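Researcher: Here's a chain I'd like modeled. Treat it as a single chain, no partners, no ligands.
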Amino acid sequence: MQSSTVTLCTAVSPLAINCASFRPLRIVNFRTPALISSVDFIGDDRSKRRSLSISSRCARRLRLNRNFISSTTAAAGGGGGGSVSELNDGARKLLQVILWIAEAVYIVWLFLLPYAPGDPVWAISSDTISSLIGLSLNFFFILPLTNLVGIHLIEAPVLHPMSEGLFNLVIAWTLMFAPLLYTDKLRDRFKGSIDVLWGFQMFLTNTFLIPYMAIRLNVAQEDDTPRKTSQLGSVMTNGAAIVGLTGGLVSVLSIVWAFYGRGDGNFGDLGERLEFLQSYLGSERLAYAFIWDICLYLVFQPWLIGDNLQNIRQDKVASVNLLRFVPVVGLVAYCLCLDTGKET
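Model: Modeled as a single isolated chain. C-alpha cells:
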C-alpha cells in the first residue's frame, strides 16, 4: 500500500492525518463491509481532546445505528417488535379514543336503541329469553350429544342448528382468549380482575373486552407491578393446550353442526339453512350481537397475539406469528405453543 500524508490547516493548529499504518475496523453494513482506518492526530492537547471527542461521538452514533438495525431486523423477522403497544404517543391516544367510541356504540346500539335487528334490552321478548336459555343449556353441545348416544337424563332443547352453531362458535372462541389474557404482558395496567373480565366476556357479552383493550394502552405507571396470578389464571395458563384443543374442536363441531346437525329434525338442506341464518341475523338482537363479537375478535386476536409472541416457544414463534391472522386457528396455535414454563 502506498503511503500518503494529508495536512489540514485550521486557524487553531495544523493537523496531520497519517494513513501510512492502520489497523482495520470492520463495520456491519446492509450491503458491503467497509474498512475504516485509524487516525493518528498530531497537534497540541486541545486538538487531541477535540479529536477524541469527535471520535467518541462517532463511535456512540455507530452503536446506536447498530442497535437500531438489529431491532428493525428483529421486527421484520416476526420477533415481536413493532407491536401495537409500542406505538408513539399520538397514535396510542387516537387508538384509545377509537376503542372507547366503539364501546359506547356497542352499548348504545346493541343494548339500548330499538333500531338494530331484534329487541333492545329494555324491551326483550319472552321468545328471546327462551331462546337464550335453550342455547345456554346446549352449551358446547353436551346435552344434544348425550341425547344422540342414548343418554336422556336431561333432554336437550331443540333449536335450529344454525343458531346453536353460531352461539357455540363464539363461546368456544371466547374460551381460548383466557390463556391469552392471563399471559398478556400489559395485563397489569388493567387494575380490575382478569377473572371477572373473562367471566363476563365468556358468559355475558363481549362488550367487556373493549375497555380492556383501551386500558392496556395506558402509559405504564410505577405501581404497574406484576400481580400474582389467580387460581383460575393458573389453571387456564398451565392447561392452555387443553383449552386450545377444546376450543378448536368445539369450533369445528359448531360449523359442522350448523350445516348438518339435527338432520332428522326437518331443518332443511344447506340452502334452507343459509336462508334461516340470514333471517336469524336480521331479526334477533342476540344473533346480531354475535356478528359484532366476531368482527371484534377478528381485530383483537391478531393484535393481542402479536403483542405477546415472547410467550411462545422459540421454535414456534414464526408459525404463530403467521397463524394469528386466521380466525380461531390463531388462538388455537397460541394456546398449543404457549411456553407455560416461562414467567409472564
